[in-house]
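Problem statement: downstream parser choked on a complex file, so we are re-checking the raw output for the flavin-adenine dinucleotide run. The parser issue turned out to be on our end (a line-ending mismatch), but while we're here, posting the original submission so the record is complete.
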Amino acid sequence: MTILVWIEQNNGEAVSSCWEVLGKAQELAAQLGTSASALVVGDAIDVIAQEAAGYGAAVYTASSPALARYRLQPYAAVVEQALDASGATAFLTNATLRGGSLAATIACARGGGIAANASDLRVDGGQLIATRSIYSGNILADITFNSSLAVASVRPRSFSMPATGAGGGSIQALPVALDEASIREKITDFRAADTGEVSLTDAKIIVSGGRGVAADPEKGFALVGELADVLGAAMGASRAAVDAGYIPYKHQVGQTGKTVKPDLYIAAGISGAIQHLAGMGNSKVIVAINKDPDAPIFAKASFGIVDDLFTVLPALTEEFKKRLG
Ligand SMILES: Cc1cc2nc3c(=O)[nH]c(=O)nc-3n(C[C@H](O)[C@H](O)[C@H](O)COP(=O)(O)OP(=O)(O)OC[C@H]3O[C@@H](n4cnc5c(N)ncnc54)[C@H](O)[C@@H]3O)c2cc1C
C-alpha cells in the first residue's frame, strides 16, 4: 500500500495541517514498508513543492492557471491522475471543507472506502485503520477498508507537525491538459475574508470563553478578547456559548467545532464536557478558570484558577500587558 497525500494551498501557501497528515503518512508508510508521496495542485506552487520535498516525500505537482483556485472537478481529475501515476492505494487529505469534498469525490469515483473526519490513523496487522469519533465523542470507532483504495480525511491538529527532514524528496510534474470550457465551476469573483483575527486552528495560544460568562456575555467575551489580544492569541468558545448567541460558530472548539492543539489553551467559564475536551484536550498547556473547584476541566488542566472569570481575566490581561510591554 502506497499513500498519496493532498497538500491543500491558498495563494501559494500550504495549509499547515496538510504537513501533519504528510508526516503521519510517512510514519505509516515506514511501518508498511512502502512510501508516501505528496500531491501539490495549483498555479505558482514551486515553493510548496520544495517544502514537501523538504519533508523527504516524493512530490507530484499539477500546475496550471486553471488550477489556481480550488475547484472540485479539475482538482479531482488531477488527483485521479496522481493516483494512477503513483499507484497509491490510500489517499489522505486534511478534513477541511475542500479536503472533505475532495476525499468524498475520489472515494465515489474509485469505489474506495472512506473514513471522513478521522482523528487518528494507524497500522495494525499490515492494514490501515482509521479512528473516527461517533455518538458525540462517546465512542471511538475503528474503520478498516475492504476496498482497493482507502480514503481518509483527517481532522486538523490530530497529529503533530513533522520535523523537516534532510530533504531529498523528488518532484515530478504531471502533464495537465485541462479545457477551461469543460470545467463546470466558474469563479467569477473572489473576496478574502480579512478579519484581522488570528486563525483558531493555527494559533499557538487560544483564550476561550464558555457559559460561565452568562452573567454578562458581552463583557465576558470582551474580557476574553482583551486577554487574547495581549497574548496574540485566537479566541475560542464552547458550544454552549455559541448556542446562546454570545459568539459566532467559527470560534467553537470541540467535537462539532474545531480541533485545536495550541501551546497554551486558557479556558474561562468552561466546565470541560467531553465534547469540548475532544477539540482541545491535546493542547500542550491548559489553564482553567472556573468558580467551581469540582468542574471536570480541572482534571485535564495543567494549571487551575478557582475564581470568578470577571475578576481573573482583567487581572491576567493587566499583568501580561506589564510583562510583555
Ligand atoms: C452532539 C454534541 C456535540 C457537541 N459538541 C460540542 C463542541 O463542539 N464543543 C463544546 O464546547 N461543546 C459541545 N457540546 C456541548 C457540551 O456537551 C457542553 O454542553 C458544553 O461544552 C458546555 O459548555 P460550557 O462548558 O461553556 O457550559 P457549562 O457546562 O454550563 O459550564 C459553564 C462553567 O462555567 C463556570 N462558571 C459559571 N460562572 C462563572 C464565572 N463567573 N467565573 C468562572 N466560572 C464560571 C461553571 O462553574 C461551569 O463549570 C456538544 C454536545 C453534543 C450533544
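For whoever reads this later: The chain has nine helices and 17 strands.
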